Amino acid sequence: MSTTDTTPAKGTGLAFGYVTTLFFAWGFVTSLIDPLIAAVRRVFELSLAEAMLTASAWFIAYGVASLPAAWVLSRLGYSKAIIAALATMVLGCLIVPVATIADWYPGVLIALFVIASGVTLLQVAANPLSAALGSQRTAAFRLTFSQAFNSLGTTLGPIIGSTILLTGGVFTAGAVVTAATRGDSLRSIDFAFLAVGAFFAVVAFFIWTARKRITEAAAGSPIEVVSPLVAFKSRWAVFGALAIFIYVGSEVAIGGLLIPFLTQADILGIPEANAGHMVGLYWGGAMVGRFIGSALLTKVRAGVLLTVCTVAAALLAVTVTQTTGTTAAYAALGIGLFNSIMFPTIFTLTLERSSAPASATSGLLVFGIIGGAILPWIAGRIADGAGSVTPAFIVPVVGYVALTVFAVACIRSRGRGDVEARTAGH
Fold first, then answer.
1. What mean pLDDT is predicted for residues 344-353?
2. Cα separation values, 218 from 82, 129, 224, 327, Å
């Protein structure tokens, strides 16, 4: 009998619940980037490409921190690495008010980089931990289920964030950008990130109290002390990292474009705060899709479901570029539903096929998230050059077509999870 099919260690279910809380936490703070792009664009009077640097500062941290994070995880273990990640995130939140008091936009970017560095370590630890807390045959289900709570955080983030960041100050109806209105909006940014920092501190305490239970539950899945660079020797690890690069870049580009897109006169022509609230529908679609997807993945091969979702997302993105009004608006928002299972499915499909150790593969996959730093900026440049946000959606169109290639390749190959599923069926 395979060791992956043995009875889970006592406390595994509760430990999985603790880990799932982390997915919510980083989803919430990551989705604040969307309304923050609109806020800094108005407060600091930036072009869309310059405002998109908030996303770049956030996601470039994955490129810098992901590979060392895999080494840190192997040295500290799951519980200590998670607590260190949350402490780093709290530190970054404290840098935000220092930057806004100095009225220095690059300082905000530095703060976001620090927070995202903590999120990077958190993801490197939490993704394989979620997959490890149970049978490998159901790893895709568990990771997708955890990602559903990540989507709950990303759904609430834009709604709450837009209410705080995109109202009052420079966003008051008829207001002009003055020292007073800028000051009010900068204080709103401070409040949002200090509140998030307090939330991270509470989660860190919660995880600290549960550290022994998490360690015991994951005892059957020791972390291999290997260099993350080993993953570059695996063709599937590199292929998966490229897929993550494209997926995250496309998803983040859409999220960052939505507020200026929905406010366009030829789309909905609504205020920024209202558009920010509607962004919650984009991320909410991902949440609903992940709950549905977690159930479907118990019946449908992961590669097949991924192919269906990438094709549907590509068609919706094409619709956005070819239409206007409510059709274009809801086509853009609807992409979130099909984004839902992409990240966790790409992650687990790659882990099942990679010849490199899981910790090294995980580090390389998280490195791929740097796509969120590059593709949104490219989309912003396209929008600035065209004088309209609509043409920028060509970036996710190309991205989803490329992801379809990855999904089909997974169908044509067999991973360890596929072999176990076939064995269990006999």
1. 92
2. 14, 7, 13, 47
Q: What is the DSSP string of 336-348?
A: HHHHTTHHHHHHH
This prediction has a pTM of 0.81
* pLDDT in the model for residue 148: 74
| Residue type present at position 382 | I
Q: Within 10 Å of residue 240's Cβ, how many Cβ atoms?
A: 27
- What is the rounded CA–CA span in Å between residue 92 and residue 65? 14
CATH of the domain at 261: 1.20.1250.20
Token pair recorded at residue 179: 């020292």
Question: How many angstroms separate the CA atoms of 26 and 115, rounded?
Answer: 10
3-state helix, strand, coil split of the chain in percent (to 5) is: 85, 0, 15
pLDDT at residue 398, as a whole number? 98
Measured CA to CA in angstroms, residue 383 lies from 7, 76, 212, 353 at distances of: 53, 44, 50, 38
**281-315 core/surface letters (b: 16 or more CB in 10 A; e: else):** bbbbbbbebbbebbebbeeebbbebbbebbbbbbe
> Using CA atoms in the order 403, 404, 409, 411, what is the torsion angle rounded to 10 degrees?
120
Dihedral through CA 28, CA 33, CA 39, CA 40, nearest 10? 140
**Mean pLDDT value across residues 211-229:** 66
Q: Evaluate whether 36 touches 160 at the Cβ level (below 8 Å).
A: no
Taking alpha carbons only, the member of 375, 374, 369 closest to residue 67 is 369
Look at the block and give the residue holding tokens 């440049």. 381
Element (H, E) at 240: helix 235-262
| pLDDT at residue 136, as a whole number | 63
pLDDT average, residue stretch 135-143? 67
Give CA separation, 295 vs 5, 43, 130, 143, 281, in Å.
20, 44, 17, 12, 21
Query: What domain range includes position 228?
Result: 3-424
Query: What is the distance between the alpha carbons of residues 89 and 86, in angstroms, rounded to a whole number?
Result: 5
Angle at 248 between CA 68 and CA 152, to 5 degrees: 100
The total domain count for the chain is 1
Q: List Cβ neighbours of 22 (8 Å cut-off, separation of 6 or more).
A: 82, 122, 126, 203, 207
